[in-house]
Structure formats: structure tokens, C-alpha cells
Specification:
The protein is α+β, with helices and mostly antiparallel strands. The protein is built from 15 helices and 12 strands. The chain has a 7-stranded mixed beta sheet with strand order 1-7-6-5-2-4-3, with helices on one face. Strands 9-8-10-11-12 form a 5-stranded mixed beta sheet, sandwiched between helices. This is histidine--tRNA ligase.
Length: about 400
């Protein structure tokens, strides 16, 4: 397979912008963590006689804050998309000016092979996100004026294509157009149909031909794209259509062989084809569905909670949790010297933490630790030296 790159169709402009950025300015991406600390309320400590500051914190225009629950959903979407890109050999390109989730293939390759892989990637991402049934539409450029005036297609051929505008289908529609004598006599139309026939051949080999529809009523940026273009839409039941937002297409892409040359001082042409995943649109759909279904979302990945039923056991809890962290186990405890056991157990249930390790005076004397399942409330005594192995076993079984 040839090397792939995440070369966004607008990334070149962003890169030029970065080069022109004044020295000393640095773009920093913030990562926000949520734990028990977020449960606390931050209170201003200004004294009564001090004047309040006029400083107001505002969300930058075009952005919004996301809650821990929303971040979980968004990160799962991004992880799914990025994992798919990497599976297809992608290299990452960071352009801080954009939130990019695009996959692009740049270079001179044989016809329709990269195009077919982009459609395969789109299918993998949308299937993996479990959005429901979807369809990827491949349009014929159907705007008569642009086809004739800008693309050089003969007017009579453009009019003949117009007869097909209300049609959509798979390879059978392509074959039907091949048999149309008025289309097959035009070199440009014949080349385009040949590309589509080849594309559907590859899509069949990839096992996704049934997800692709050749839709002559669809048109997307004729000046921007130079070849096959496509967009993915969700096929919703009437009930889903009422529940979910009308967001339009959730992914799109196509071939844009002339765009890179616009930003190259020497005007070098680099053939490119790519796709964009509508992360924000998909996020809006999944968020709405979860609200409708009343699903509870875990906001942490904590696997084990370290608890005690007794006072003055903070040091033992700290030693124990350190052992778990050092073993790569995600663990936490309450930031209190003498928390009540019931409070600790309720916290685990509320946060969806699956396991609790309990240490007290009796356990310390016997050299064991109690391992409790939060769901079943069953407890077993484990020798301390075997605790990490037993936890890892339990986690692998869940």
C-alpha cells in the first residue's frame, strides 16, 4: 500500500498562516480533567471592603465548553475515527487553526484505487460509531451552466445527463448510462462513466457496494472538486427523524487534484483525494439520542476504588493506591482522612467504578485485602501479594 497522509484540503493555508505568526506566540491545547475536585464549589475570597474585579471570563466565539459527560462522547467519536485512519496507514498533520478529522491521499496513483479506499474508510467509521443505517451518495455534476461553460461539456450531452438527474442506484445505473448512445459518443462522459464502473468494481471487492448510491441529483462545489465526489447521510426511521437533529450529511469528500497547486509558488499539481468526518454533527446526533434514551455516561475510567471502614488509615490507603497506580491500574480514593465506608461505597456506585479494595485493621493483621464487586456486592479476601494479579484478572473478565 502507498503511504497515506492526513493532508487537509485547507491545511496548506493554515500552514502558511502559522509561518506568518509573530514570533513568541504559541498555540496551546488545553486538557481538562474531572474528578472529585470538580464537586467542590470555588468561592471568591475577596474581602468585603475590596472592590470586585471587572474581569469576565468568556468562551471564545465559535467555541463552547463541554461537560465531562459530553467529553466522554466526543472522545469516543474521535478515538474511533483516529483508530480507523491509523488502520489505513495514516500519518498525522497538526494544524492548530482547525479541528481536523480528515483523511487525504496525495500522489499519483492508478485510477480509483485511493478513491475506493476513502469510501471504505467512511463506511468503517460510520459503522463503528453505530449511528444506524447510512448511505453514501456519489453525484454526477448536474449543474448545466457549470458543466457547459466551465467544464467544456457539450450542451447536448449536458441536457442528456439532465434526463437522469432524478435517478439513483448502483453499478446497474452506470451500465445503463454506458448503453446510452448519446452519452457513450462523448469522450468526457465516457471517461467519467468508465471511472465510475471501475470504482464500483473496487467497492464490490471491499464489500461496501450496497452502501454506495450513484445519485445524479447531488451537486457539491464543482470548482473545488475535479473528479468523483461523495457524501454520507443517515437513513432514519420516522421515529428517529423526530428525535434527532436535522444535520444533513455526516461525512463527505472527493477528488481535488488542482487545489494544492493553488498554494504552491511553482504551481505544482499534486493529485489528491480525501474525506472529512462531520465530528460535530455526529456528536450532536449521539448526544441527542443519549438524552432521549436517558443513558447514564461514566465520566471517569477508574477501575478500582481504595476504601477503608476505619479511622486513621489514610497512610495505608495511600500505600495501597500507589501499588495499584504503579501496576498501571486506574484507581482513586476519597481525599479525606476518615471517610465513612458507606460514603465511599455510594461514591463507587454513583461513578460506576466496578471494584473496591478494602483495607482495615483485621486485613492488615492477616496480610489480606478485601476485593468487592460493586455490582454484586460480593467480597473475597485476597493475599496482598496476589492483589494486583487478581484485580487484573477480574478486569479482563468484565
Amino acid at each position: 500500500m502507498p503511504p497515506f497522509g492526513l493532508l487537509h484540503r485547507r491545511a496548506w493555508a493554515s500552514l502558511f498562516g502559522q509561518l506568518l505568526r509573530p514570533s513568541g506566540l504559541v498555540c496551546i491545547g488545553e486538557v481538562h480533567f474531572h474528578s472529585q475536585v470538580s464537586e467542590a464549589v470555588l468561592i471568591s475570597q475577596l474581602k468585603p471592603h475590596q472592590e470586585k474585579s471587572n474581569f469576565v471570563i468568556k468562551t471564545p466565539k465559535g467555541t463552547r465548553d463541554l461537560s465531562p459527560q459530553q467529553m466522554v462522547v466526543r472522545e469516543k467519536i474521535l478515538d474511533m475515527v483516529i483508530d480507523c485512519f491509523k488502520r489505513h496507514g495514516a500519518k498525522r498533520l497538526d494544524t492548530p487553526a482547525f479541528e481536523l478529522k480528515d483523511f487525504d491521499i496525495a500522489g499519483q496513483f492508478d485510477p480509483m484505487i485511493p478513491d475506493a479506499e476513502c469510501l471504505k474508510i467512511m463506511c468503517e467509521v460510520l459503522s463503528g460509531l453505530q449511528l444506524g443505517d447510512f448511505l453514501i451518495k456519489i453525484p454526477w455534476k448536474d449543474v448545466r451552466h457549470e458543466m457547459v461553460a466551465k467544464k467544456g461539456l457539450a450542451p447536448e450531452v449536458a441536457d442528456r445527463i439532465g434526463d437522469y438527474v432524478q435517478r439513483h442506484g448502483g453499478v446497474s445505473l452506470v451500465e445503463e448510462m454506458f448503453q446510452d448512445s448519446r452519452l457513450s459518443q462523448n469522450k468526457q462522459a465516457l471517461e467519467g462513466l468508465g471511472d465510475l464502473r471501475l470504482l464500483f468494481e473496487y467497492l464490490t471487492l471491499f464489500g461496501i457496494a450496497e452502501k454506495i448510491s450513484f445519485d445524479l441529483s447531488l451537486a457539491r462545489g464543482l470548482d473545488y472538486y475535479t473528479g468523483v465526489i461523495y457524501e454520507a447521510v443517515l437513513l432514519q426511521t420516522p421515529a428517529q427523524a423526530e428525535e434527532c437533529l436535522n444535520v444533513g450529511s455526516v461525512a463527505a469528500g472527493g477528488r481535488y487534484d488542482g487545489l494544492v497547486g493553488v498554494f504552491d509558488p511553482k504551481g505544482h499539481t499534486v493529485p489528491c483525494v480525501g474525506l472529512s468526518i462531520g465530528v460535530e454533527r455526529i456528536f450532536a446526533i449521539l448526544e441527542e439520542r443519549m438524552k432521549t434514551a436517558g443513558l447514564k455516561i461514566r465520566t471517569t475510567e477508574t477501575q478500582v476504588f481504595v476504601a477503608t471502614p476505619q479511622k486513621n488509615f489514610l497512610h495505608e490507603r495511600l500505600k495501597l493506591i500507589s501499588e495499584l497506580w504503579d501496576a498501571g491500574i486506574k484507581a482513586e480514593l476519597l481525599y479525606k482522612n476518615n471517610p465513612k465506608l458507606l460514603t465511599q461505597l455510594h461514591y463507587c456506585e454513583h461513578m460506576g467504578i466496578p471494584l473496591v479494595v478494602i483495607i482495615g485493621e483485621q486485613e492488615l493483621k492477616e496480610g489480606v485485602i478485601k476485593l468487592r464487586s460493586v455490582a454484586s456486592r460480593e467480597e473475597v479476601a485476597i493475599k496482598r501479594e496476589n492483589l494486583v494479579a487478581e484485580i487484573q484478572k477480574k478486569l479482563s473478565e468484565s
